[in-house]
Write a structure and sequence with these properties.
Blueprint lengths: L2 H17 L7 H25 L1 H4 L17 H22 L2 H21 L6 H21 L4 H24 L1 H7 L4 H4 L4 H23 L5 H23 L3 H24 L4 H7 L16
Helix pairs in contact: 1-2, 1-6, 1-12, 2-4, 2-5, 2-6, 4-5, 5-6, 6-7, 7-10, 7-12, 10-11, 11-12
């Protein structure tokens, strides 16, 4: 089920639920949403490992997974994945609505039937994989709002952009492993690392305006904005250093910074959720005073 990886999926889905506009926190609905999303994510992970079992056996990083070790029969894994997909979709449909259920089910198809095969054919698989990672917070958001309004798209955009430098750094560290497995990764097709470094830097820089747009659309307040700016500059600086010196220590540093970036950003967003003006009023900030103007004044 890739429990450690999917724990992050559940965190982002929960964050999308918490920061979505609502009159009060419904902890029961949050729990059902997390359960349904987790079941769907587990299904996608099982299907991915079922398809990639032979290639995983060739890679040092993945050869100890259950499928290369033949701990389960492929038919057992396939049936189990289908059961989890059905259960997850049913939970989301019953307690969150049709849109979160549809997003989660579509993500299973996207991850297993499109992203996984693309890893053998084109380096653009990373873009498709980033889309898969962008959907869980949108599941959480739509479980509250019932619609994909700008706030939900912003959350998805942040997760999409974050995954590019995060994964490119990981792929650079394991580029020889990916080559042994026969995967078409940018780090494999870019021996010098220049394209990889540029892509990491450009997407890291994109995180700055993307994360700040959450303030413009009333998702979070000014304290969050300050945190987002600092974190965006931090990961951009590390990406620039990786571009300048494309070594494993630099890639590992960028990878670790990317791991720190996301939870810190989400915590800041959750703690300072809601429009900036509302956040200031809640903290006892100076209210905005409207002054009557003379009649006819522009």
């Amino acid at each position: 089920m890739k429990a450690r990886l999917n724990a992050l999926v559940l965190v982002t889905a929960a964050a999308g639920f918490v920061v979505a506009p609502a009159n009060a926190m419904d902890w029961g609905r949050l729990g059902w949403m997390v359960l349904g999303t987790g079941l769907c994510a587990a299904s996608a992970a099982m299907l991915n490992q079922l398809i990639e079992a032979r290639r995983d056996a060739l890679m040092t990083r993945t050869k100890s997974r259950p499928m290369p070790q033949r701990r389960f029969h492929p038919a057992t894994v396939f049936v189990g994945a289908l059961i989890l997909a059905y259960a997850g979709g049913s939970v989301l449909l019953a307690f969150s609505g049709w849109l979160p259920a549809a997003l989660a089910q579509a993500n299973i198809v996207l991850y297993a039937a499109i992203y996984t095969p693309l890893k053998r054919w084109t380096t653009l698989n990373t873009i498709v994989g980033a889309v898969c990672g962008a959907i869980p917070p949108m599941v959480g958001w739509t479980a509250v709002t019932g619609s994909l309004d700008p706030g939900g798209w912003i959350l998805g955009g942040i997760l999409f952009a974050w995954q590019i430098p995060h994964f490119l750094a990981l792929a650079w560290l394991y580029r020889e492993d990916y080559e042994r497995g026969g995967f078409e990764m940018l780090s494999v097709r870019d021996p010098s690392g220049q394209i990889t470094g540029r892509a990491a830097l450009l997407t890291s820089l994109t995180l700055v305006p993307l994360s700040l747009s959450a303030v413009l659309y009333g998702v979070a307040g000014w304290w969050y904005a300050g945190t987002a700016l600092v974190l965006g500059l931090w990961i951009s600086i590390e990406s620039a250093r990786f571009l300048h010196s494309r070594t494993n220590p630099r890639a590992r540093r960028l990878f670790l910074v990317s791991i720190a970036y996301l939870p810190l950003l989400l915590v800041a967003m959750v703690l300072d959720r809601g429009p900036a003006s509302a956040s200031a009023a809640a903290r006892g900030g100076t209210p905005v005073i409207e002054v009557d103007r003379p009649e006819g004044a522009r």
